[in-house]
Amino acid sequence: MKPRPPTMRAKRRYILARILPYRMAADQKQVYLSLIEAATSLFGDAAVGFAQPAVVFCEGGYAVVRCRRGTEKDIATALATVSAIADERAALRTVAVSGTIHALRRRMKPIRPLSGAGDVKFGETYFTVYRYPRQKVDLVEKGIKHQKSLFFTEVDLEER
């Protein structure tokens, strides 16, 4: 059986979504189930069936979602309403929409620890410094899996 020519294929769009918090190890299937649940509650089964959303891959704090052309705004809206992935609090933020995965891969920026800073000590506690693209700097307590929020005043910044 010959494949369909490009003019007869259904047009697809790909949505690049950032997974927050950054260090969350999101499974592709769990992201898909969260997306389908959110989309179904917003638009109903018929609209979600027409959009045909699918998670193509999840890596490096990003997820790529495929859908039919014309429904990308609805799927992006559903991505914004996701509040949990696999019983862990999480958010999906739309970064870009494209017709190819290759164009979206160029928009993915790797998340890495801040070079040169390494570990920082505040009081009696050691923290690892993480810098995110166009975002804040997080300090994560060493030896503990959960983040501890630190807030600094101008006086604290002047002392350091």
Give an account of the 3D structure.
This protein has 160 residues and is α+β, with helices and mostly antiparallel strands. It has two domains: 99 residues, Alpha-Beta Plaits (2-Layer Sandwich), CATH 3.30.70; 48 residues, no CATH class. It has five helices and ten strands; from the N terminus they run E-H-H-E-E-H-E-E-E-H-E-E-E-E-H. Strands 2-3-1-6 form a four-stranded antiparallel beta sheet, with helices on both faces. A hairpin with a 2-residue loop joins strand 8 and strand 9. Helix 1 crosses helix 3.
SSE layout and pairing:
Blueprint: E1 12-20, H1 28-43, H2 45-51, E2 54-59, E3 62-68, H3 72-80, E4 84-85, E5 88-89, E6 91-98, H4 101-107, E7 112-113, E8 119-122, E9 125-131, E10 137-141, H5 154-159
Antiparallel strand pairs: 1-3, 1-6, 2-3, 4-5, 7-9, 8-9, 9-10
Helix pairs in contact: 1-2, 1-3
